[in-house]
Amino acid sequence: MYKNKVLHPQLSKFDIYNSAGENYENTITAFKNALEIGTDMLELDCHITQDGHVVVAHDADLNRRTDSEGLISSRKYSDLPLMKKDLPLDFMPGVVFSGTSEDRRFPLLQEVFELFPNTPINIDIKVNNDQLISKVNDLIKHHNREHITVWGNVKDIITQKCYKENPNICLLFSFRRTMTLVALMYTGLLPFIPLKETHLEIFVPSHLVRGIQTYLWVMNTEEDFKMAYEAGAIGVMTDYPSKLRAFLDENPQYLSNGYFIANQLSDNPR
């Protein structure tokens, strides 16, 4: 009833990096640094500009990341400002990343695909926008990335549109579908119901997931890392790839089961 899709045939476990604690989030520099220390997968978020460019950005608006206001969708790509030098971090309120990198611009998804053609990437489609979904799909197909890309969103309407647009791309469970998964387990119907989704971003006990790759976010401490791997997660999404890399080097038993993801949001606090 369920055909498992694996993003990389040589990896059974992975680490996902956003790197927001070590570089300016969602920048080319952040992605490069994460991969240099051994990450196996990147996590990023996408929005669309007024003139139809797919940009890598976590927030729909510019307020937190720049000195400007307004929505990304209301600006042409050429008019997007640089990020602040002192950047408040999304998942850790009150923490600010301050770096020296000059790379503070919003990259295009196309750039990321061109620079990292063989790197598995988890894409969060941040807004319910048909043009955005269509353009992301076109880019994935153009760069022959259907087999190493996961996409979707916590909102079920977005995830369903992603699947309708291209069922060959690995699909995230939305929050609603995750609740359905749990209900099916408790009613005993789970083994008999086909599932189109391939990846979970939250913890569901291993006997629930029928081979579905599961990773947890956002894990930023050694205690978090240990809990995630001992719970059976195949990957950990973190803002501190260097910290997770050191943890895995000291605890190689967690790599024996599998592989590492960069939650590209910044070697400074997040």
UniProtKB/TrEMBL annotation:
Keywords: Hydrolase, Lipid metabolism, Membrane, Transmembrane, Transmembrane helix. This is Glycerophosphodiester phosphodiesterase domain-containing protein 1. It is found in: Membrane. The gene is GDPD1. The keyword Hydrolase applies. It comes from the Eukaryota. GO terms for cellular component: endoplasmic reticulum membrane. SUPFAM superfamilies: PLC-like phosphodiesterases. InterPro entries: GDPD-Related, GP_PDE_dom, PLC-like_Pdiesterase_TIM-brl. The keyword Transcription does not apply. PROSITE patterns: GP_PDE. It holds the Pfam family GDPD. One of its GO terms (biological process) is glycerophospholipid catabolic process. One of its GO terms (molecular function) is phosphoric diester hydrolase activity. Belongs to the glycerophosphoryl diester phosphodiesterase family. Residues 11-248 form the GP-PDE domain. It catalyses: 1-O-hexadecyl-sn-glycero-3-phosphocholine + H2O = 1-O-hexadecyl-sn-glycero-3-phosphate + choline + H(+); 1-O-(1Z-octadecenyl)-sn-glycero-3-phospho-N-hexadecanoyl-ethanolamine + H2O = 1-O-(1Z-octadecenyl)-sn-glycero-3-phosphate + N-hexadecanoylethanolamine + H(+); N-hexadecanoyl-1-(9Z-octadecenoyl)-sn-glycero-3-phosphoethanolamine + H2O = N-hexadecanoylethanolamine + 1-(9Z-octadecenoyl)-sn-glycero-3-phosphate + H(+); N-(5Z,8Z,11Z,14Z-eicosatetraenoyl)-1-(9Z-octadecenoyl)-sn-glycero-3-phosphoethanolamine + H2O = N-(5Z,8Z,11Z,14Z-eicosatetraenoyl)-ethanolamine + 1-(9Z-octadecenoyl)-sn-glycero-3-phosphate + H(+).
